[in-house]
Design a protein that fits this description.
The structure holds 3 protein chains of 3 kinds.
Chain A (H helix, E strand, L loop, with lengths): L8 E13 L9 E7 L5 E4 L9 H13 L6 E4 L17 H28 L6 E4 L2 E4 L2 E7 H10 L6 E6 L19 E13 L5 E11 L6 H20 L30 E7 L16 H4 L1 H13 L10 H11 L1
Parallel strand pairs in A: 3-4, 10-11
Antiparallel strand pairs in A: 1-9, 2-3, 2-8, 5-6, 6-7, 9-10
Helix pairs in contact in A: 1-2, 2-3, 4-6
Chain B lengths: L16 H5 L15 E7 L5 E7 L1 H5 L3 E5 L29 E2 L5 E7 L2 H10 L1 E6 L6 H5 L34 E5 L2 H7 L2 E9 L11 E7 L3 E6 L4 H12 L6 E4 L16 H11 L3 E4 L2 H6 L7 E9 L5 E13 L5 H10 L9 E10 L13 H19 L3 H8 L18 H11 L6 H4 L6
Parallel strand pairs in B: 1-12, 10-11, 14-15
Antiparallel strand pairs in B: 1-5, 2-4, 2-6, 3-5, 7-15, 8-13, 9-10, 9-12, 13-14
Helix pairs in contact in B: 6-7
Chain C lengths: L1 E6 L2 E6 L6 H9 L17 E4 L2 E4 L12 E3 L12 H8 L9 H14 L5 H8 L10 H12 L1
Parallel strand pairs in C: 1-5
Antiparallel strand pairs in C: 1-2, 3-4, 3-5
Helix pairs in contact in C: 2-5
Classes of the chains: A alpha+beta, B alpha+beta, C alpha+beta.
Chain lengths: 337, 452, 151
């Protein structure tokens, strides 16, 4: 450390590389769904999963629309009610897009087949000669000879005496573990991420400023890239809070100083957010719906280690206990000298 | 984006947005019924103690207080959250009968005409508790002679005894989950360097802006509808059925839009208490947790301490790894035995380590139970592993990108648990990240791939 | 006591106690969905309302104070079914996930832009310091506000 003010601010860069499993560890977590056509030929997808803000209703509607061949505007996902929807294990473990997505594909394919069968009667052609996509059914090579999915789904009920209902289920059967080795098949698929953090450490106050986060995530397939982006940015800021500020027990393992309000437990606010550069890459997985892997959790995981490694790079000391408060930075600097 | 799809891969607008920006989204807190009563809890002031006496007489006399609910009102006063997937034994009371195991544990409930009266009533309940020395430190908790706070004689979950819902039963259990592969001792003998590290993440609160809110409404014929801020309606249904001793199909659980969860609303934490209260009074009952309850009672991310030793070769390979993971479950089981397995099987991170020995301990202490939070198990492991990788690289004097590339797992290899790796894509992701961060990687790294 | 006020343009009459907060009355007595309880102590902003056009935490405001005044929540911003500029901007910029903080965020943004149509980053961050969001990481919210500021 030189003259005060001269090298008071040190910069550093840190990396973290991560993988994250999709779905409950070891599996055994089923998801079921039922898709039911409404009288007007639109569709309701019933799931007991829960919309928490992540955009589950939107993503699942996209998967259902794709599987049925319906227009996404004609698909409504109803959620979170054990009376209306069959069993689903729950909305956690980055499992819903994967588990429920797979269940919805099966249910959607059943609906699709029903629609093709009914359309073949209306158009008097074999179901094999029909195409269905994005709300339209047409005779292959004769685009003029077409029907809307809505009218077919409606006519099925009113004219052709056919219920338009699809059911779907997905489970990765539970992998039992060998107790002496841990041998097991814990996950359905792994998603990946890499974070590069740039920080500035004020050696006089101990304060750490995160200047930039570069994040790249491989998500199998981004069913909805906009919603993936929402997760990436939100997860980055949650990771930043964990890295620098958050714990309910600041003197862990002691119970003293336990936080009781947002005045003591200081969440990141708008002004704390660094520049976040991100990229989504795709490597579709065999087990995922249209190749998708789980996204929601992984995006918080690489942030704290990248920031801590950046602080290590900046000050030459690796602080190992989160959160990296100014107090810990100053202590680390003092012990270094 | 691939044109093989019509709507998969499209940035379809989040269908919830319009109701969010107009304030029309319905959360549990907007659900209300005529004659609805409110609940507040009398909470333990100590981390560990024996309940000597609960005197509710003053509270009962407060106008507007309808009923005080204690342990004896609960038909089956013991449960464990993940019984549905085979995790046991049940160890958590809905309301404690004789002992409290964390500060803030609900001792009894006051049901009253409104929230304020319930809170006043709770203040009037007099509880006499004999304070006992708490177990707070995980290492201390595991030592012989530590006060035992579980029902099975040791402050750790027993794996392999048929109660973890995961391992093949038939052998005696042990107080940790084990992952073992290759010959780790030989790897350490062969190593040019051994690098050690110890890493700690303390408890972190999920802090969704919406706190826990639950409304339970008795219906005719021993039925009950529960509106609640849950991420897992069927978990709530199962646990409430267990403690009420009624068929699960008598219970309807509804989660309307939930105002953020992040794992904090996976555990049925308070629905059982609200359900008991509603059944006792035969009227709809509501409980809205305060922010203070969110911090001091609701689950947190577990504190996790991870010790790692890496056996390294001078040419930059990780030959072997030993790790010991301690996961602070708090006072009760909740989801922790599961979380520890998930963490332990992932202790290699995205790296190929041929020889490993990992022990994962689910430790009980006298603090609020911990549970899942975004990245459960692996958030903590990623943290420890990536700090360790940085240490390893520095010890060897190798650039940390180079070290990660060299040890990154590849398709066709086998994981620590013997699973064929078939979805690896780390090397490609690291190349993208380096490029985006303006790092020019040397050509030998750019030529690498996750396939061979 | 009985108080009368305008809530999103509608006349409201309600009996309140001297100690009742406006949030308590709005949520538990009237059943308003467009304000949310987050902390009850003026830290998170989920309960924000406009009282005669001024931004207030309804959890820190006594209900009696609004007697004879106009209370506006985010539900009162649309005119003849047309969303306000700031609501549209939140929609366009995907500036909400769970939506719980959104009413307060939008009202804060509205008041900021009325006072200062072209806020600097610092002014924007200062204005948003009393509104917590745990989902979005704030960037879409900042983008939404800036998109209105530009117009």
């Amino acid at each position: 450390m030189g003259v005060k003010g001269e090298v008071a601010k040190l910069r550093g860069r840190g990396i973290a590389a991560i993988c994250y499993p999709t779905g409950m560890n070891l599996g055994g977590d089923p998801s079921q769904t039922v898709i039911v056509a409404q009288p007007d030929g639109t569709f309701v997808v019933n799931v007991a999963s829960v919309e928490l803000g992540q955009g589950l209703r939107t993503v699942l509607a996209q998967i259902a629309a794709e599987a049925i061949g319906a227009s996404v505007e004609d698909v409504e996902v109803r959620f979170g009610d054990t009376q209306l929807a069959p069993h689903d294990t729950g909305t956690f473990a980055s499992r819903t897009t994967h588990r429920m997505g797979n269940a919805i594909i099966k249910a959607g394919q059943e609906v699709r087949q029903i629609l093709l069968d009914v359309a073949s009667k209306i158009l008097e052609v074999s179901p094999q000669d029909l195409e269905i996509r994005n709300g339209k059914i047409w005779v292959r090579g004769v685009p003029d000879k077409s029907l809307t999915v809505r009218e077919v789904a409606s006519q099925a009920q009113f004219v052709y005496n056919t219920p338009v209902v699809g059911k779907g289920h997905y489970v990765k059967p539970k992998s039992l573990v060998d107790p002496d080795t841990g041998e097991s098949d814990p996950h359905s698929t792994m998603a990946h991420g890499c974070v590069v953090a740039d920080v500035e450490v004020d050696t006089e106050t101990g304060e750490v400023t995160v200047l930039q986060l570069v994040t790249v995530y491989e998500v199998g397939r981004a069913i909805n890239p906009k919603l993936v982006e929402g997760q990436i940015i939100g997860g980055a800021v949650m990771g930043l809070g964990a890295a620098l500020r958050e714990t309910v027990y600041p003197r862990y393992p002691q119970l003293t100083h336990q936080t009781t309000s947002f005045r003591e437990y200081v969440l990141p606010t708008a002004g704390d957010v660094p520049k976040i550069i991100y990229k989504i890459v795709e490597s579709p997985t065999q087990t995922g719906p249209y190749g998708a892997k789980g996204v929601g959790e992984m995006v918080a995981n690489g942030i704290a280690p990248a920031i801590v490694n950046a602080i290590y790079d900046a000050i030459g000391v690796q602080i190992t206990e989160l959160p990296i408060t100014p107090e810990k930075v100053l202590k680390a600097l003092r012990e270094k000298h | 984006m691939s044109s093989q799809f019509s709507v998969v891969g499209s940035p379809v607008k989040n269908v919830q947005l319009l109701s969010h920006v107009t304030g029309a989204t319905q959360y549990v807190d907007e659900i209300s019924f005529p004659g609805m009563l409110w609940v507040k809890a009398v909470r333990s002031p100590v981390a560990r103690g024996r309940i000597k006496k609960i005197d509710t007489s003053k509270a009962e006399k407060l106008p507007g207080v309808v009923r005080i609910i204690t342990a004896k009102d609960v038909p089956n006063n013991i449960h464990v959250n993940m019984a549905g997937i085979g995790i046991g034994p049940p160890d958590e009371p809905v309301l404690p009968e004789s002992e409290v195991n964390y500060k803030g544990e609900a001792i009894c409930l006051v049901v009253a005409k409104d929230e304020e009266t319930a809170a006043k009533g709770a203040q009037l309940v007099e509880v006499e508790i004999e304070e006992l020395p708490p177990v707070l430190d995980m290492e201390e908790a595991l030592k012989p002679g530590a006060p035992v706070i579980t029902k099975w004689g040791i402050n750790a979950f027993i794996y392999g005894s048929g109660m973890d819902g995961a391992t093949r039963p038939g052998r005696p259990g042990r107080p940790f989950f084990l992952v073992k592969r290759g010959d780790v001792e030989a790897a350490f003998k062969r190593a040019d360097y051994v690098v050690e590290g110890s890493y700690l993440i303390p408890p972190i609160e999920h802090a969704p802006i919406e706190p826990h809110v639950c409304v339970a409404k008795p219906e005719p014929g021993q039925r009950l509808t529960i509106y609640t801020t849950t991420q897992a309606p069927y978990f709530v249904r199962d646990n409430v059925a267990t403690i009420l001793k009624i068929p699960a199909s008598n219970i309807r659980v509804v989660a309307p839009a939930v105002g953020g969860g992040f794992g904090g609303k996976v555990d049925p934490e308070f629905e059982m208490q609200v359900a008991v209260a509603a059944m006792c009074v035969g009227r709809p009952v509501k409980w809205r947790w305060t922010r203070e309850e969110e911090f001091t009672v609701s689950t947190t991310r577990p504190a996790v301490k991870i010790e790692i030793q890496d056996a390294l070769s001078s040419d930059g390979l990780i030959l072997g790894r030993k790790a010991r993971l301690l996961h602070d479950s708090g006072a009760y089981t909740r989801t922790s035995p599961y979380g520890v397995i998930k963490a332990t099987v992932n202790l290699s991170g995205p790296y190929q380590i041929p020889n490993v020995y990992y022990e994962g301990y689910c430790v009980y202490t006298n603090r609020q139970p911990s549970s899942a939070m975004r990245g459960y198990g692996v958030f903590e492991v990623s943290y420890a592993v990536e700090l360790q990788i940085e240490r390893d690289a520095r010890k060897l004097g190798i650039d940390s990108w180079e070290f990660r590339f060299k040890n990154a797992y590849k398709n066709g290899q086998v994981s620590a648990t013997g699973r064929l790796i078939d979805d690896a894509y780390l090397i490609e992701v690291m190349k993208e990240a380096a490029a985006l961060a303006g790092v020019s990687l040397p050509s030998h790294l750019l030529q690498m791939s996750s396939w061979g | 006591m009985r108080i009368r006020f305008k809530l999103d343009g509608q006349d409201v009459e309600v009996d309140v106690k001297h100690t009742d907060t406006l949030l308590k009355v709005l949520k538990d007595k009237i059943g308003v969905g467009s304000v949310n309880f987050g902390c009850g102590e003026g830290s998170c902003g989920a309960c924000m309302v406009l009282i005669n056009g001024r931004l207030r935490y309804s959890c820190l405001t006594l209900a009696g104070y609004v007697d004879g005044k106009e209370v506006t929540t985010v539900a009162g911003l649309a005119r003849d079914g047309e969303l306000s500029e700031i609501q549209k901007a939140f929609l366009e910029n995907d500036a909400a996930q769970c939506g719980y903080c959104t009413p307060g965020m939008i009202l804060t943004a509205k008041v900021l832009l009325e006072k200062n149509p072209t806020p600097s980053d610092e002014e924007l961050f200062d204005a948003l310091a009393g509104n917590l969001c745990r989902c979005t990481g704030y960037i879409p919210i900042i983008n939404a506000i800036k998109s209105v500021a530009k117009r």
